[in-house]
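As described in the Methods, two query proteins were run sequentially through the folding procedure within a single session, without resetting any intermediate state between them. The first query and its resulting structure tokens are shown here.
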Amino acid sequence: MQDSDSHGHGSGSGILDPSDPRPSVRRALVAWLRLQAALCLSPVLARECLEATGGDPVAALARSHRPAPPSSAKAEAWVRSLGRLGVCAVPLTAPEYPAGLRALSDPPPLLLVRGEISDLSRPAVAIVGARAATRYGRGVAEELGAAIAGAGLVVISGLARGVDAAAHRGALAIGGRSAAIMGSGHDRVYPPEHADLAARISRSGAVVSELPLGRPPAASHFPLRNRLISGLVQAVVVVEARHRSGSLITARHALNQGREVLVVPGPIDSAHSAGSNALLRDGARPVLDASDVLDAVSPFQVGPSLAERLPGPADPDQARIHALVVEQPVDRDTLSRDLAWPEGRLALALMSLEMEGWLELDRDGRLYGVSASRRRLRDRG
């Protein structure tokens, strides 16, 4: 984290750390928390007031004419709680505030972040979908999360049951980065059984809320939350969405924000896929495998692939074969001809690769290599 004075924390123009003992930082954080509590559900008004007052949260709160804003004593208590939770505050005026959110017409006046704030400014893909997802939907979301994170992108979702949780877990399973955007305060993780998942995400990414501490997961919070999910990413992938699903709200936000919307096709007779299939009918790009998603975000620079950090086969013969078949499946005769090895050498290497899980035989008799990220995810399951 950068030094507070380098960004003028006395005026709240940088990251505000609740564990920082300096009075200037404390005053700035109290001012921003009071503004957040009063205007978090009115982000357009918050932005107008901040712009009119030069980014001063005290003057902006006064200009908003909101009755009975929370007291400074209440905000002081929040500061102590944020410190215990390990949550930092990122005001709209901070240089570290994500550019994708700053560009919105209704950006949150304050983000509360547990984890790595810089992950919110990296190339990212959102994976969203049904809470009551089918086994198929959860499996696809987890595999896409692993593949997208393995390509060096941040996987962003909403920490909900079903597709969201599967996408987060897929990214984490292969050592990738993920970010969860919540529709409740940091002390009210929802659903409660995902508290451990949120903690894992905070250690390998970020958990984010625009809401004050104590705010429950109210229905009005989730449409607001969804605009942040789409605002932070280059593309949104929808996996299983019913008609009137919240995931469709995220997709609409994405389209309005100029983001790419992609959809995993589902059975035409499944209510779980009725909304997502309608997006396909209306022109969304289909996702048949992770490469479709990566192609959609290829104009954006992505981080280094995890492939370099995940070990492949150690034996040189095995490593050479694996490199040949992991990109493009081939039949055994073609592989034998390309390598020109003695039959015994080839057979031994292929048997070892298959036993160790680096190689699989397709139904048509072709051999294909299992990537390190997919092998790690499979072994975990």
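Immediately afterward, the second query was submitted; its sequence and tokens are:
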Amino acid sequence: MQTSDFDYDLPEELIAQEPAPRRDGSRLLVLDRQRDTLEDRRFEELAELLPTDALLVLNDSRVFPARLRGQKPTGGGVEVLLVSPRPPGPGDDAPNHCVWHCLCRSSKGLAPGAKVRFGGAGEAPAVVATVRQLHPGGGADLDFTRPGGSPIGGSDWLMDWATDVGETPLPPYIRRPGGERDLDRDRYQTVYAAERGSVAAPTAGLHFTVPLLEALTQRGLELAYLTLHVGPGTFRPVRSDSVGEHHMDAERVQVTPQLADAVRRAKAAQRPVLAVGTTTVRALEGMASAPGQLDAGDSEVSLFITPGHEFRIVDGLITNFHLPRSTLLMLVSALAGRDPVLAAYRHAVREGYRFYSYGDAMLIR
């Protein structure tokens, strides 16, 4: 397969820069694979569109304000995206000290040993980071130290601190003036977010409201949750001409015994398992050891799902509209077929659907 096989034309004005006024007020394009039909609906109608015996699996990862802006001693600006904590090495277990893998952007670059100062305004104390190691593509391991005083919270003190001084890591295609706004702290987060650790929202879940979740359970659907902490790899473009040459970044996944049991029971009873978002698909398929068998535990998943993948768990999907040539579009095409998906995307463009993170949604059943 070639990356160009997953291309389509998208007018820039259809890339949503703001969320819909209401979470469940988005449009919903329904792709019915058995009937080979497309139907224009509203997300608030979801409860009547899903099988009443379905198991609906959602990703409860919480986005934290992972984008930090700092300064070098020379005064040069540095932008950092916190990606994931590194396992502690010798001397890394001090309570006010931690090492994180980050993506960094600096006008003149960074060198090992360079120091960057963050925060220090208002009530938030300053934090100093030392570049420990550089990686290709703008990555670096930064050694963060909070000088003086007692640590904020426990082992997650850096995320606690970033909550006060960091910015919501909005996707690069949201280019509105001023960047982050107050509403992003609320709307770039699902209503059921629980486990902190993502640098990007599992965006299919942004459409759900508490009343809608309650309506689903009242109709008989079973809801269950897993945690996949979304990393920046979700935005990483496929740069190779051949799809098979692309490698996915690993992401942390937590599957509880309760979820594994719910999946086992659903598959044994031939009830459909529906995933909310491509992150949930990657987690379920990456943690599956056999058809209908989901393994519980904490792990990392780097499964790259493309057409030809044999789905072991997932029967249907609720998702947003994705970038041309992206791994997410390839995953959706693996489930529903490349030609039907691209035909659905052409329909969405003609009908003026809103695309990407703050855009409209699609149901594949």
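The chain has a mean pLDDT of 92. We note this only descriptively and draw no conclusion about the first query from it.
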